[in-house]
Every structure is written in structure tokens, then in C-alpha cells.
Hints:
By secondary structure, the chain is α/β, with parallel strands linked by helices. The protein has helices spanning 3-12, 48-56, 70-78, 103-106, 151-155, 159-164, 214-223, 253-267, 300-310, 391-408, 414-423, 441-450, and strands at residues 21-29, 82-87, 92-97, 112-122, 173-178, 194-200, 225-226, 230-231, 238-243, 272-275, 314-318, 340-345, 358-359, 365-366, 369-372, 376-379, 385-388.
Amino acid sequence: MDRIFWSIVFIMLSFQLQAAETFAFRLYLKDKGPVEFSTVHPEFFLSAEALDRRNRQQIPITESDLPIAQTYLDQLTGLGLQLVARSKWQSTVVVAMTDSSMMEQVRQLPFVANDVWVWQGEFIPPSDSVYFNDRLKSFNRPLKSVYGYADKQIRLLNADKLHKAGFRGEGIRIAVIDEGFKHVDRISVFDSITIGGTFNAVFPGQSLFQADDHGTKVLACIAANQPNLLVGTAPEATYYLIKTEYGASEYPIEEDFWASGVEYADSAGVQLITSSLGYFQYDEPKLSYRQSDLNGKTAFITRSASLAAEKGLLLFISSGNEADGNWKQVTFPADAEGVCVVGAIDEKKKRSNFSSYGFTKDNRMKPDVVALGTGTSVIDSEGQINFANGTSFATPALAGAAACLWQAFPGLTAHEMIELLKSVASLPSGNPEIGYGVPDFQKALKQAHKQGGK
């Protein structure tokens, strides 16, 4: 196998946490250790597709792209620690142990600068149940529209005009970062999906298709392709499915899983990421965030999202569903610089009552744009069409339309894509409840042509 393959594998390697009382800490490293790779030869640790994305947007390879030295990782495992997650961009490693007193030894290591507690509890992987291979077909009645039950969410964006022009996402690599994708490999509306890769950051090596179906619903909005029943906004794209959410509890370690997932997507050459996960409150209150932290710099997950944008990835982040609760505002990483934050509206184009809103603490308006998030058509884990509410579903629908637009104009940078979407949205002046409103993708297609997009 070639070096690029092993470079990607290197990023993915980690040890699975045991089903026992476990403590996990994020270690901030002073440096990445003895040089094993060089920015002069990035082909040894980044895929050809990742390099192509950087080259097209004139984004240089920097030391932040270099992996953490194996010698450092070996020293950590040599102490009997489990390596759970890592971020080369932020020079961090998450280690787990059943005896928290081991951290005294860890802190004495010369390359460890600081540490933060990110987890305590039992990580219990999904049980191995009997798995069937039978196809899961919808019992819903087919409709006249080719988009079936997704017709409203497609036409609200004028995404159907992109499809009629021949742009359905072909050639665009999309990462979907979520909780789990139960039965995606069995559900009929996904029969034609192209999956380029999968990555389970929570339980490495385990299938993404056997537990948790939030990702299944999210994926339906963008990748489903069964005419007259359900068609997503980018049915011909190539998908990378990434699990970073552990549904049984809420701890900051999930931010580390998310960072690992984003870096996997980057290395694999993904161009666009849609993520319907957001954080602000944890099971341990003292680990939770304050609204003053919504500044684009504080949250670990936010910094990872901003770094991904700097690497030329086009990120669509859900604003969150906290407007009718105490928090109200967008959740992390929706405060990140350089990402496109998506809120939810209903059929009357009014903000969904749950859709998080507001300015960030450094006075940036969020969300940026909106899509249908009330009564969105999705697929459940049994292959049946349901209607769901959430910015979780507005985000992938809009991201898929953007993928089709990028297919039409591959010469645009990620930043230019976001600015284009805001410029063709329904509310030119913008407001902190729905941002610039609903992007008109037919208008975007015409405007990009007029501006000489390639």
C-alpha cells in the first residue's frame, strides 16, 4: 500500500475506550515532536484530492498539517494510556485511563504543556445484535413530483433549477459529520449513494450503520435518490460518513472526536462538510460554556472549524435548536470564523421557533442563511418517510444545493461560495434571526455566470 494510504490510516488510529469508569484528558503539546514529515512533500500525509483542493484555492501546506510524532504517542501508550483522539492542527492528544492519578506522570513528560479534563464515565459501545441484510423499502405512496416528499425543501431553494441544468453534485466530495447512520446500507432511498469512506471517531473500527439514526435522517436531506419518493439536494455527490457524537452523554470529548473527524475529512480530500451537531452545555456543569465564549476563539470545536475553513473546506454548520430554551443563541461551533451557519424556517419563511439566533460576542451576525427546518422530510432507520423539525435538517439540504453550485463553478473558493450564497439570499440587509434569508440557487447560478465563474 502506498504512503498516502498509511498517512490517512495513521490519523485514524486510536484505542477504543473500555466499558469501565474512565477518565479522559486533552493534552496540549508544546510541539509535535521529531520531524517525520515535511511540508515540502505533503503527498506523504495528504491525499492527492486534498492537495488539489488546496492548490485550486492557493492555500499553502503549513506545519499545522504535519502529524504528531509517533515517538510522542509511543511514550503515552508506554505509560499504559489509551489514545482516544488527536488533532494535528491544534497539537492535542486525548488520553484515557481508569486511574486519574496517572496524570501526575503525564504532566511530567517534557512535551506536555497543559491538560484539560474532558470525560468521566463509562463508554459503552453498541451491543453486537443480529444484523439482517434485507432491504428496507418505504411504504409511503409515491407522489407526482420527481422529488417526492422533499419537493418543498428543494424548491424553496430553487435547487431544482441546478438539477435541471445538469448539476446534481457529481465530483463533489461531501463529509457528513453526525451521530450515526443506522441502516443507511439497507434503506432503498440510498441504493445509488456513493460512499467514499467512513470514519467512526467514537468507536474505531465499528460499523456506523448499526446504531443511532440522527445521521440517517440528516443524510436523507442531501443524498436520498428515489424519484417520486425522496430525492436529496446532491444525489450524485460522493459521501464520507463520520460519527463523532456519543449519544449517551454530553462531555467535551465530543469536540475532540469532531476535530478528529474534520481532519480525517481534510486528509481524504473532502471539499464540503455538513455538520448538524452543536454544543454549549455538558453533564458536568463546570465544563459547560458561557455565552461570552461565543467569540470564535474559545471553544475547542470552534477553533477546529475555523482551521478547517482556512484549509479551504466549505463548512455548513447548524445554528442549533435553542431559541425556545434558556440559551437562545447559536451553539458551538456556529461562532467559528469562515463557516456558513444555517438556521431553520417554516413553509411561510418565518424563523422556526426553535432555531438559534443572534450575534456572536464579537458582533458577527449568525445564522448566515436559512432553509426549511420545520416539517422537513426525512427517512427513519426503517426506511419510512417522516417529517422532522430542526436546524439539523435545514443544514444538509442547503449544503447539498451548494455542492451542486460548486460543481458548476469549481473555480470558486470556499469563501467566495459563502459570499455568493449570502448575496443571492432573500434578505439583503440581514438580521440576527434568519441572517440573509433563503439563498436563491437559480439566481446564484446566473450571478456566477455573469461574474465569469469557472
